[in-house]
Amino acid sequence: MPIVSIVTATYNRSNVLRHAIASVRRQTVTDWELLVIGDGCTDDTDTVVASFGDPRIRFENLPRNHGEQSLPNNHGAALATGRYLAFLNHDDLWFSDHLDALIGALDGAGADLAYGLSARVDATGQVHLWGDSPGGVYRLWQPVPASLWLMRRDLFERVGPWRSASTLWDSPSQEWLRRAAATGATLRPVNRLTTVQITSGGRRNSYASRAEAEHSAMVRAMDDEAAGREQLLTAIAAGSSAMTTATRPLLLAGRALRALVTRGCAAVSVPPTALVNAVRFGRKGGFIRHLRRTRGLAPAIGDSQ
């Protein structure tokens, strides 16, 4: 039985997936299993996974494409045997101390789930900090992507499976995290940058074009982890400084409005992203349908849009 079970849901981005798998194999914690669950993949994902020749890695391909991560992640979690459970999106990368840092936080604090910090690179190349928790406390309006988490496996069993995006105003990962918090689970932030995200959602036709150049460049930058981490933190700080010194009226007004909406949502325990998605897309699952169109993917089976 491994210490950590890692679940990676994937669909037809084998060229990017290989970088995510390589980042798992670089972990200083080596006692893990990686469950790569294909969401009806039709490319060479099976060949790419097999090319690593690592018995700790297992690939299963679901018979049809579900259209988002909830079903493959639930399938992978059901197969997991480790004491701890982690999720890694197929287009995200871990620094080598990701598992080590979060296991230390779980064991040291007796928490149910720990999460690190992420450098999220947007489509313009700007780098943003995600997962930061002012006051060291998780708040329901705070986005904490699943690639940042490590949990005790029995927490997943207590909270239950990811819910389908088609039934939600918000993303399945954030809805699951809020359910975990609602059970009284202890969620522990770790003030260490352990993850890099080069997300497909903001990159038009990222699936259709099989874009990979940004991932390859980031992997090269992370070869020297100390220098790579410092470079990302410097970029995050520079971006924050630019925002702080911005004086354009529309920008300041937008920030004030976002703060007002966040406070209002917090007062009634409604996640701001769910409210925004309800207004923007008009029906549940609209956010995922929008992401599929942006990525250059056809509508999911059973979805007319």
Topology:
Elements lengths: L3 E7 L3 H12 L6 E7 L6 H7 L5 E5 L8 H10 L4 E4 L4 E3 L3 H12 L3 E9 L5 E4 L18 E4 H7 L12 H11 L4 E11 L15 H9 L3 H21 L3 H19 L4 H10 L4 H10 L10
Parallel strand pairs: 1-2, 1-4, 2-3, 6-9
Antiparallel strand pairs: 4-8, 5-9, 6-7, 6-8
Helix pairs in contact: 1-2
Question: What this model shows, in words?
Answer:
There is one protein chain. The protein is α/β, with parallel strands linked by helices and 305 residues long. The chain has one domain (4-245): Spore Coat Polysaccharide Biosynthesis Protein SpsA, Chain A (Alpha-Beta Complex). It contains eleven helices and nine strands. It has helices spanning 14-25, 45-51, 70-79, 98-109, 153-159, 172-182, 213-221, 225-245, 249-267, 272-281, 286-295; strands at 4-10, 32-38, 57-61, 84-87, 92-94, 113-121, 127-130, 149-152, 187-197. Strands 1, 2, 3, 4, 5, 6, 7, 8 and 9 form a nine-stranded mixed sheet that branches. A hairpin with a 5-residue loop joins β6 (113-121) and β7 (127-130). α1 (14-25) packs parallel to α2. It is globular and about 45 Å long. The chain starts with a strand and ends in a 10-residue tail after the last helix. The mean pLDDT is 87.
